[in-house]
From TrEMBL:
Gene Ontology terms for molecular function: RNA-directed DNA polymerase activity
Signal peptide location: none
Species, as recorded: Araneus ventricosus
The UniProt record lists the keyword Transcription: no
Name of the protein described by the UniProt record: RNA-directed DNA polymerase from mobile element jockey
Domain of life: Eukaryota
Protein keywords: Nucleotidyltransferase, RNA-directed DNA polymerase, Transferase
Domain Reverse transcriptase span(s) in chain numbering: 62-174
Organism placement in taxonomy: Eukaryota, Metazoa, Ecdysozoa, Arthropoda, Chelicerata
Pfam families assigned: RVT_1
Length: 174
């Protein structure tokens, strides 16, 4: 994944990560999660010495400034998990989970935090964007539509709508 292709990239303007941020991310890792392809489990991460946390902080800063995410950190191990009460011989009875390295999750969290701040501070997203935004959900969008229809009805306006339901939309890669 490349974050930038030119010298005037937004990513280079992000605040560098702080060791305290990396430490907070490590503290939030759940011990009972399976490790990624690197084999480093979260219990190991939680017991890292300070100098290693400082090194991780430097690496994540380099990722942001150079715009290059390590290939090994992008590699997930996909494991099928049987859905409760489903037939184990039916392939649709399984849901896939991806096991990513904890270092990848930490870097992604810190980058996402900065990216979301940038999008918010610079009003990049339109107000109608509700998906994948903090503190907004499909319920908010539904309320917005109901208000729009109610207002149109009160003003004796006609309202039309087109609805598109994509089956298992979040299970697919677009």
């Amino acid at each position: 994944m490349r974050f930038r292709t030119e010298a005037n990239s937004v990513c280079k303007d992000f605040d560098p990560p702080l060791p305290s941020e990396v430490l907070d991310c490590i503290k939030s890792l759940r011990i009972n999660k399976a490790p990624g392809i690197d084999g480093i489990n979260n219990k190991m991460m939680k017991n890292l010495p300070l100098h290693t946390i400082l090194t991780i902080t430097t690496i994540i800063h380099k990722i942001m400034t150079l715009g290059h995410f390590p290939t090994r950190w992008k590699t997930a191990t996909v494991v099928p998990i049987l859905k409760p009460g489903k037939d184990p011989t039916d392939t649709t009875s399984y849901r896939p989970i991806s096991l990513l390295p904890s270092l990848s999750k930490i870097a992604e969290h810190l980058i996402l935090k900065r990216l979301n701040n940038y999008l918010k501070e610079n009003n990049v997203l339109c107000p109608e964007q509700f998906g994948f935004r903090e503190k907004l959900s499909t319920s908010h969008q539904l309320i917005r539509v109901v208000e729009y229809v109610t207002e149109g009805f009160a003003n004796k306006q006609k309202t039309g709508a087109v609805f598109l339901d994509i089956q298992k939309a979040f299970d697919r890669v677009w």
